[in-house]
Write a structure and sequence with these properties.
Elements (H helix, E strand, L loop, with lengths): L1 E2 L2 H19 L4 E7 L3 H17 L2 E7 L5 H13 L5 E4 L9 H5 L20 H12 L9 E5 L2 H13 L4 E5 L11 E5 L15 E5 L3 E2 L5 E2 L11 E5 L5 H19 L1
Parallel strand pairs: 1-11, 2-3, 2-4, 5-6, 5-7, 7-8, 8-11
Antiparallel strand pairs: 9-10
Length: about 260
């Protein structure tokens, strides 16, 4: 089984960013909005801050309580849209189920949507770009393969499906549904945040596995959706957690923030 090394590629991207930012003597700025205290989201944000510090990009973190209303989040987004010093805005997903993620994210200006989820965005989604890079790194023929994504966000599922189609890959996604029918998938993409959910018995032999789900245990151990020890004899390719899709996604996000600064 091939294990994808996302960290190596991410470090290269961050190093190049650092050189450019230092040479140009600029200070790109990213605004991150989070709701509640989800452990996985907290980890993502901490990792973003560490990576940003390496490159010279500034991050402003807006923490809202679990009971924050849509109007409160939108009010902050509208304020940040008007702030010339802010180059990129992201809303950390997933949001609490009572909130409409799509409605909220649509309020981000396309030129500041560095997560690449709005319809008229100026940027490719860092997460989806990382998934596509990993798929190409599998060295497998992707055309004609059956792709299934397990997601906890419609906006991510729709965006992923659209980008797969651009690569001539037909894919479908399931949101928070039973996973009994995934055995026919040649390529399985998971972004659920349910630790070790995917086992060997659920998979097709030779499956390509992209694990973009992260959970944090009580001992601060980071675990993916796929039980990587259990599936080793059946899968042909895996992006591990940690060290796979996560660091690469953060690197591409910061690259988008730099591009947003240049775009303005």
């Amino acid at each position: 089984m091939i294990i994808f090394n996302g960290k190596k590629t991410a470090e290269k991207i961050l190093s190049e960013l650092k050189k450019k930012i230092k040479k140009e003597k600029i200070k790109p700025k990213l605004a991150v909005i989070s709701i509640g205290k989800d452990p996985a989201s907290g980890l993502f944000i901490r990792n973003k801050k560490r990576a940003a510090q390496k490159t010279g990009i500034e991050i402003n973190h807006y923490r809202l309580k679990e009971n924050a209303e849509e109007k409160d989040i939108i009010k902050i987004i509208e304020h940040l849209n008007k702030d010339f010093s802010v180059n990129g805005i992201i809303v950390q997903l997933p949001l609490p189920k009572r909130l409409n993620s799509e409605k909220i994210i649509k309020r981000i200006l396309p030129k500041k949507d560095v997560d690449g989820f709005t319809k008229k965005t100026c940027f490719k989604s860092p997460l989806i770009l990382s998934i596509l890079i990993a798929l190409k790194g599998s060295n497998k023929k992707l055309k004609g393969k059956k792709v299934l994504a397990l997601v906890n966000s419609d906006i991510f599922g729709k965006t992923l499906k659209k980008h797969l189609k651009k690569e001539n890959i037909n894919g479908n996604y399931l949101k928070n549904k039973k996973i009994s029918k995934i055995k026919s998938a040649d390529i399985l993409i998971t972004a659920l945040g349910i630790p070790n959910l995917i086992k060997e018995k659920m998979l097709k032999r030779g499956a390509i596995l992209i694990d973009a789900g992260i959970s944090v245990t009580g001992k601060n151990k980071v675990i993916g959706d796929i039980d990587k020890k259990n599936i080793q004899k059946k899968a042909s390719f895996l992006t591990p957690v940690p060290g796979g899709i996560g660091p690469l996604t953060i690197a591409y996000l910061l690259k988008n923030v730099y591009a947003a600064y240049k775009y303005r």
